[in-house]
Amino acid sequence: MINIFRRHKLRESDFIRQADGSLRRVHAAGRCLGASCPIHRPSDHPLRDAPLQWRGDRGFMERICPCQIGHPDPDDLRVKNFPEKFSVHGCCGHCGG
């Protein structure tokens, strides 16, 4: 498994989900690693406005759709250069499949 925490100097504790759904202790907007960022500059994908959730067990962010299913955030996978196999998930179609 790719150790994203070591590679990008992140720890699972860097992302704290608040009761209102917002994230705390994330990088500053000027320190985004790519052209798109799941937190500050999401690309134009179907779930760009869906709530974010940190998946510490898998090492990436996911978007929670109206069905309450977690879909890997494409911007987070792209900026971390995760192989496509990491995007496999139980899908309801809200992410565009």
Average pLDDT over all residues: 77
Helix content class: 10-25%
What is the string of SSEs from the N terminus onward? HEEEEEH
* Structural class based on helices, strands and sheet pairing: alpha+beta
Oligomer: single chain
Q: What best-fitting shape do the alpha-carbon axes yield?
A: globular
**Number of DSSP helices?**
2
Rg from C-alpha positions?
A: 13 Å
Distance between the termini: 24 Å
Textual characterization of the structure:
This protein has 97 residues and is of the alpha+beta class. The protein has one domain. The chain is built from 2 helices and 5 strands. The strands form 2 sheets. It has a 3-stranded antiparallel beta sheet with strand order 3-4-5. A two-stranded antiparallel ribbon has the order 1-2.
Keywords for this entry:
10% helix, two-stranded antiparallel sheet, 5 strands, three-stranded antiparallel sheet, disordered N terminus, 16% strand, alpha+beta, 97 residues, 2 helices
Short description:
The protein has 97 residues and is α+β, with helices and mostly antiparallel strands. It contains two helices and five strands.
Lay out the secondary structure.
Elements: H1 4-7, E1 16-17, E2 23-24, E3 52-55, E4 60-64, E5 70-72, H2 74-79
Antiparallel strand pairs: 1-2, 3-4, 4-5
